[in-house]
Amino acid sequence: MMRALGYPRLISMENFHTPNFMLVSEVLLWLVKRYEPQTDIPPDVETEQDRVFFIKAVAQFMATKAHIKLNTKKLYQADGYAVKELLKVTSVLYGAMNTKGVERADVSEDDSSKFKFDLGSKIADLKAARQLASEITSKGASLYDLLGKEVELREARTESIARPLEINEAEKMMKVAIDCVLEQVQKTKDMLNNVALDEANLEAKIEKRKLELERSQKRLQTLQSVRPAFMDEYEKIEEQLQKQYSSYLEKFRNLTYMEQLVDDYRKTEQEMFEETANMLRLMQNRLKEEEQHLLKSGNKDDSDIEIQEDEGSDSEVEDRQIMKQRTTTETLLQGILTFPYICVSLRRSG
């Protein structure tokens, strides 16, 4: 539809997958200019207030001139929902173009995809037709209401026509009507006088407010130019606070780092204790097994050897060997038990 109406660029739904307010504002402004070229709507859409004002102006123009109700929230979203609102205006212009039977202009081979239609001269006729249609509907509704009252009014009309006309009563009625009109005129004059007085009072109030505004602005300028007495002290305290805060951050970082180191050291120390305990258990088990093995082998040797005269000397030698093995195992166990404590003390001293 936009291409048929003569829009200079191509538009697709992909342009509105993400909010694109600049394109929506451009299309709205083009449609408004297409509908009425002499319309003066500000095209500024840089700030949020300008965008809201632009959307409101376009919606008000379409509601008053074209009787098209637009959803301002959907237009402000500038996404796929805004396309539905744009189609309301585009379909009206496209339908008017089709009903009028505007012939397509001859285009060259390079511009074969572009169409140009002149609707500027027909906009006034379209407005007049819409206005007449609205007036016809309103007049028809009022006529229907009046015709519904015709049954009651017919009897009153026949009675008034049948009744003879009295000049005195007519004069009285005319005087009463004239008095009512004069009272209304007097009231209108009084209201005009009151309006003049109100206008003068309002002007006086406006002048008073202007003077107060000028005084306030001057006072504000003097206050901004004068430096407070406590400002120097405030700046010094602020610098000290900044230094204290930086030192606090540094100490806090160091503290957290040291706590982390302590935790790591405790974990490693616990792991070392567990490893040494495991090693001690293994060594104890091995030593017990060796001792039992030696005892068993000693008993077997005693049973196999024949009774001889030097039996006492051999048994003493074996007892000494067993005592030596026990003393060596005990010293080895004591060294293993004291080894982790020595390592811990060396690390702490280091």
From TrEMBL:
The keyword Cell membrane does not apply. GO terms for biological process: cilium assembly. One of its GO terms (cellular component) is microtubule organizing center. Residues 292-302 have a biased composition (Basic and acidic residues). Its main location: other. It holds the Pfam family Cluap1. It comes from the Eukaryota. Residues 303-317 have a biased composition (Acidic residues). Residues 292-321 are annotated as: Disordered. It is found in: Cell projection, Cilium. Keywords: Cell projection, Cilium, Cilium biogenesis/degradation, Coiled coil. Belongs to the CLUAP1 family. This is Clusterin associated protein 1. It comes from Bubo bubo (Eurasian eagle-owl).
